[in-house]
Amino acid sequence: MRITPLLLLALAATGLFIACGPTGPTAVAPTTEAATYLEPHRPQLHFTPDAHWMNDPNGMVYYDGEYHLFYQYYPDSTVWGPMHWGHAVSTDLVHWDHLPIALYPDSLGYIFSGSAVVDENNTSGLGKDGQPPLVAIFTYHNPEREAAGREDYQYQGMAYSNDRGRTWTKYAQNPVVKNDTGIRDFRDPKVRWDDGSGQWVMTLAAQDHITFYGSQNLIDWTHLSDFGYELGGHGGVWECPDMFPLAVSDSDSTKWVLLVSINPGAPNGGSGTQYFVGDFNGKKFTPDPSFVGDVEDGRGVWLDYGRDNYAGVTWSDIPETDGRRLFLGWMSNWTYANVVPTERWRSAMTVPRELTLHRSPDGYRIFSTPVGELEALRSASFMLSGGEEASTASLTEKFAAPASTPRELELSYELQAGSTARFGVELSNDRGERYRIGYDAGRKQYFSDRSAAGDHAFSEAFGDTLDVAPRIATEPLVTLHLILDRSSAELFADGGATTVTELFFPSEDFDRVRLFAEGGGVRLLEGKGYLLRSIWPEAR
Ligand code: FRU
């Protein structure tokens, strides 16, 4: 049986989950002494909650030297339940401090996904002492209304903080956007200030389309337009949108990007994030004519072709002097998120990524790359010189460190004409478990093979091998940039044109690493390897 949010909602409505009061009865203390962060599978490089259930990243905002990360959180269990906003901050996007829960459910409902902004000019009037407030806009999900068969059980609420996000006050007149649409799935507001139209714009998911609202003060909202009934993937419910302008690389132009997560219906099963590229005129999003063809037939264009990057959105209020568009996704998939074999906590985020926009022969495409800040974690490195033999080298001795240590590889290959080589990186252990990720020149597909990588009995689909067509053809050159943690691989191939994020659960950490190449006709041009330090003080 698939444990989906909808099923869990049904369970919650029948009282199988203990609902929390407004003050939340059982918040876990942040970073308990018992936490080793070396429990089986605990990522060393990726954000995880200290304990219990996490899903989508929420409210990501940069303010006063801190990156805030809020997230969907259920503090009473390691499976999804009445949602809170968990909270962490970082000054470098790499190391995170766990903070107390920011938002608890109240009489209006659970606190579903949403966003946060710095209200720089105090348009809301909620600031104090001349300082701008942080304003969070989120979805209230009302389980009583849902159980009563009503349609208006999701609507948007607001909260604000005048102490650098440490404590939050719910706006007294919530909700700020009621739901008189007759649409049940009406959620995940992402808010940004739009200079062009001089207003706040809210991008909201409404079942099978995106709906935009505008406001002068973050409190009073008017409907602007709808988008997407006919375009892109529609195999599931639209969720967690984000819309922002992005400069087109090597040009003077800027385009608007609209991210839309859908579940199920992703090309590789279950949950995934598609995107549209176009223009926004302060009222309407119009896909670029060159992009329409890509999304007309329902296939969609996707941010990540792996199975484990969902509900990702970008940070708000990154200073112009930085100028990057920074993204974080939830590294899981609703098909099995609730049953993956972790014990103290469930789910991790992807590494923070920078999104860039490129004009390719196939049209506008987003490239994803790990943020440069992660390089500060590199503790040791080695070079691999090129050659055909080098493409089958063992790297175990070069990566001389405990098997729980995260690893990074940058590999570039050249294919001979007509090569059908299948090559890449293999992780393995003494239990005979092995994970492989790489490129198959015969089939012209990247692949991630977790069929023998450890436990996959918890979900029927988990053990399948994934094939991903390169998003941009680069043969005869193929480059693999890999970030390997204890239970995940993130592949940024061909400069970030093709991204594949995948989980795996070996019964023992993979202690062996090697390059493999089968079928001939492939040569490693150059390789670099890095050992990465853990981001958790307890494990350092
Ligand atoms: C996406 C999602 C959101 C919702 C939240 C509930 O994963 O289903 O649409 O707000 O999770 O936890």
Characterise this structure.
A six-stranded antiparallel beta sheet has the order 22-32-23-28-29-30, with no helix packed on it. It starts with a helix and ends in an 8-residue tail after the last strand. Helices cover 4% and strands 44% of the residues. The protein is mainly beta and 540 residues long. It binds beta-D-fructofuranose. Beta-D-fructofuranose is lined by residues 5, 55-56, 72, 83, 112-113, 139, 187-188, 239-240, 311.
Q: Describe the biggest sheet? A: 6 strands, antiparallel
Task: Provide mean pLDDT, rounded.
Answer: 93
The rough form would be described as globular
| Tally of strands | 32
Please state the structural category. mainly beta
Strand content: 35-45%
Structure annotation, total helices: 3
* Low-pLDDT ranges: 10-34
Strand order of the largest sheet: 22-32-23-28-29-30
Ligand catalogue: beta-D-fructofuranose
Tell me roughly what share of residues is in helical segments. Answer: under 10%
Based on CA atoms alone, the radius of gyration comes out at 23 Å
Could you give the distance between the termini? Answer: 39 Å
